């Protein structure tokens, strides 16, 4: 690296004095002289016409000065980008799992933009098993993901744990069900699920139903949460949804059901790429914001 040598050279061009450079850095005058000589040796060119008093820049020195200022400006910009204390700038590439892409997240992202006006946002949705590789491959800076399963048996979520949330069962109020329907009674109606074969809550549901002596009856597999709930409202299946999202959507035609013997939950976490530089401050703030939201069962 020639950064220290370039700094000495630029200061000399600006001050015209080795003594002034020595005071600014601060170094001894012989040390400044050695830096200038080392730069000339590294570039294999004479930067100063030492016959003049004081020494003047050669034509090569003038050319090097222009480029040296660009290099030093770029280094300063690089330090600002790498500093975790710097104001976040540029684009934060954020992934979010489908089940959590809701109004709460939108509120958090709006607040993030207000806090860091120089920060742009590039949002991508997907499943946990799709988003995690994108972080490893450098395509995303961070992702909000979840792991699901039976309450008390949820696999450990990767990254920074934000919350633990209950997954609730929702059925139409008009459906002829008792006050506490069994899992097999719900299975006869059928389940409205997202088409994610790797989802832990789906695996836990399948295991519980099959343990009760029946195959899992899937009535519908759809991505859109609104369609899931509309189907459930019409008695065409039983939907599963994170509790907080179910409350926010406010569907009075649905009622929450707690089948005996099965409770499902999810752990929400934020996973990030290493060495985010100034973006780290924004990721930390977003994590604190999301963790502060009520997602407890």
From TrEMBL:
One of its GO terms (molecular function) is transcription cis-regulatory region binding. InterPro entries: LysR_HTH_N, LysR_subst-bd, WH-like_DNA-bd_sf, WH_DNA-bd_sf. Belongs to the LysR transcriptional regulatory family. Gene3D superfamilies: Periplasmic binding protein-like II, Winged helix-like DNA-binding domain superfamily/Winged helix DNA-binding domain. It comes from the Bacteria. SUPFAM superfamilies: Periplasmic binding protein-like II, Winged helix' DNA-binding domain. Keywords: DNA-binding, Transcription, Transcription regulation. The lineage of its organism: Bacteria, Pseudomonadati, Pseudomonadota, Betaproteobacteria, Burkholderiales. Residues 1-58 form the HTH lysR-type domain. This is DNA-binding transcriptional LysR family regulator.
